Amino acid sequence: RSFIVAHLSPVSDIIRTIRDPEKPNTLEELEVVTENCVEVQEIGEDEYLVIIRFTPTVPHCSLATLIGLCLRIKLQRCLPFRHKLEIYISEGTHSTEEDINKQINDKERVAAAMENPNLREIVEQCVTEPD
């Protein structure tokens, strides 16, 4: 159990610094992600389910899918343990949350999005640590 708690902090630390696609702020500064939005569950030996629930700044945020994509890419690259990743919009905080949840949790759609050079560049700008 304490191991799971130990994993919450690295997950929070990883997503805290992701930048908003439109604003100069991080997702943490905009309260899109908080420490409370991360859940880690053990699902096997040395494997964990990481659940992120983020809150877009406005209910019709056109960048919610992109933010979900940034969260997924950064965590896939940075998590130091085997994991499954589920990313959701906090319930009731977005007008098309169901569609977006499907999109950001669909491996093929995520892979296709990352093949788009424009989209990939935006994601890279959001997830790259400032020097």
CATH class label:
Alpha Beta
Helix content percent band: 40-55%
Tell me the strand percentage band. Answer: 15-25%
Tell the overall outline. Answer: globular
Oligomeric assembly:
single chain
Rg on CA atoms, Å = 14 Å
Q: What's the SSE pattern?
A: HEEHEHHH
Q: What spatial order of strands do you see in the largest sheet?
A: 1-2-3
Task: Enumerate the spans where pLDDT stays under 50 for 5 or more consecutive residues.
Answer: none
CATH superfamily: Fe-S cluster assembly (FSCA)
InterPro entries: FSCA_dom_sf, MIP18
Organism: Malurus elegans (Red-winged fairywren)
Subunit structure: Monomer and homodimer. Component of the CIA complex. Interacts with CIAO1. Interacts with IREB2. Interacts with APAF1.
Protein name: Cytosolic iron-sulfur assembly component 2A
Describe the protein's architecture and organization.
44% of the residues lie in helices and 18% in strands. The chain is α+β, with helices and mostly antiparallel strands and 131 residues long. The protein has a 3-stranded mixed β-sheet with strand order 1-2-3. The chain has helices at 2-16, 64-78, 97-104, 107-115, 117-127, and strands spanning 38-44, 47-54, 82-89. The protein has one domain (7-127): Fe-S cluster assembly (FSCA) (GMP Synthetase, Chain A, domain 3), CATH 3.30.300. It is globular and about 40 Å long. Helix 2 (64-78) runs parallel beside helix 3 and helix 2 crosses helix 5.
